[in-house]
């Protein structure tokens, strides 16, 4: 499941809900964008190609002229940093993933 899809579904889900949930989702979206922008450029590009464009590591490696191992290492770095940056939203993300 791609992260952009989860955020899109979260927006649709929250459209009829109370202000607190909408506020939480807006905070999550802002925090996610900031966390993505804070990633090193190559790391961010690889993460976006994988999670938003749905490319496999091999496809990303070919597209960027990198080894698959480099792509794997950069994804690990991105995921670790995002986990730390978005830790406060983990319960909300789990709930949203459970819904869909």
Layout of helices and strands:
Elements: H1 3-14, H2 19-38, H3 41-51, H4 57-64, H5 68-85, H6 90-99
Helix pairs in contact: 1-2, 2-5, 3-5, 4-5
What are its keywords?
100 residues; mainly alpha; single chain
Name the helicity range. Answer: over 70%
**How is the quaternary structure best described?**
single chain
Classify the secondary structure makeup into a structural class: mainly alpha
Q: Low-confidence runs (pLDDT<50, min 5 residues)?
A: none
Largest beta-sheet characterization: none
Element order, helices and strands? HHHHHH
What's the shape? Answer: elongated
Q: What is the distance, rounded to the nearest whole angstrom, between the alpha carbons of the first and last residues?
A: 9 Å
Descriptive notes:
The chain is mostly helical and 100 residues long. Helix content is 79%, strand content 0%. The chain has helices at 3-14, 19-38, 41-51, 57-64, 68-85, 90-99. The longest helix is centred in the first third of the chain and has 20 residues, at 19-38. The radius of gyration is 15 Å and the shape is elongated. It starts with a helix and ends with a helix. The model has no long low-confidence stretch (mean pLDDT 81).
């Amino acid at each position: 499941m791609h992260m952009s899809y989860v955020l899109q579904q979260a927006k649709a889900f929250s459209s009829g809900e109370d202000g607190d949930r909408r506020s939480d989702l807006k905070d999550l979206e802002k925090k996610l964008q900031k966390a993505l922008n804070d990633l090193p450029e190559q790391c961010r590009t690889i993460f976006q190609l994988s999670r938003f464009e749905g490319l496999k590591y091999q496809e990303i490696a070919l597209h960027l002229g990198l080894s698959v191992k480099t792509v794997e290492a950069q994804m690990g770095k991105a995921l670790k940093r995002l986990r730390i940056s978005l830790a406060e939203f983990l319960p909300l993300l789990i709930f949203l993933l459970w819904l869909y």
